[in-house]
Amino acid sequence: MAQIKELPKQQQARRLVAGTVELRGAIVDLVSHAERTLSLLTPDLEPEIYEHDDFLVALKRFVLGKSFARVRVLISEPERAIKTSNQLVHMGQRLSSHIEFRNLASDLRPERQAFCIADSDSVLYRADYSTGEGMVAMQSPEIARLYLNEFDENWQAS
After folding, report:
1. In sequence order, which ranges of the chain are alpha helices (DSSP H)?
2. Domains held by the chain: number
3. Cβ atoms of 113 and 127 closer than 8 Å
4. Closest listed residue to residue 75, CA positions, set 37, 129, 149, 141
5. Residues 70/155, Cβ–Cβ less than 8 Å
6. Is residue 82 one of the residues assigned to a domain?
7. Which of 81, 26, 34 is nearest to 55 (CA)?
8. Is the CB of residue 17 less than 8 Å from the CB of residue 134?
9. Quick check: is 40 in a domain?
């Protein structure tokens, strides 16, 4: 009988996800493990992910359960986001000292990428948000910081 070889711990922390259910689950997992900050770059507050009760409950638990919790949301296609009412926006209005939204300046808008960064050590990155595929890197500060640096630059410029 062949033995199953275990992946090194670092490779276990990185995995591919596909489909709305897996993406949502990965983001809920990121939020659940966050200690201080959550940074989201999203085209239009993607209702199929960020309108779901699992995400909203995890986010509320994070914001209310951590004394210095901060959530920053950069919207790269605000025209699309404005068209729909969004529970995340409503939560942000109620918890405005913890959740902040900004529209990404039009000259800084990435082609099609989206990501969610927890603290500075975990990230869900999607090169093309329309495909429903992404890469999760948990406890991978070297990867998360790359995207966090890009996010911070865009946040300051927006």
Report:
1. 9-12, 20-33, 47-50, 53-65, 78-82, 87-94, 141-157
2. 1
3. yes
4. 129
5. no
6. yes
7. 26
8. yes
9. yes
In Å, how far are 106, 117, 138 from 11, measured between CA atoms? 36, 18, 10
On whether residue 41 sits in a domain, the answer given is yes
Distance, CA of 133 to CA of 129 (rounded, Å) = 7
| Cα–Cα distance measured from residue 126 to residue 129, given in angstroms and rounded to the nearest whole number | 6
- DSSP-derived 3-state class of residue 115: strand
With cut-offs at 50, 70 and 90, classify the pLDDT of residue 157.
Answer: very high
Q: Please give the structure tokens belonging to residue 31.
A: 């939020």
Which element (helix H / strand E) includes 101? strand 99-103
**Domain that residue 147 falls in:** 16-157
Report d(CA 55, CA 60) in Å as an integer.
9
Percentage, residues of the chain above pLDDT 90: 75
Structure tokens at 130: 């329309």
Parallel, antiparallel, or unpaired for β 99-103 and 70-75?
Answer: parallel
What's the whole-model pTM score?
Answer: 0.88
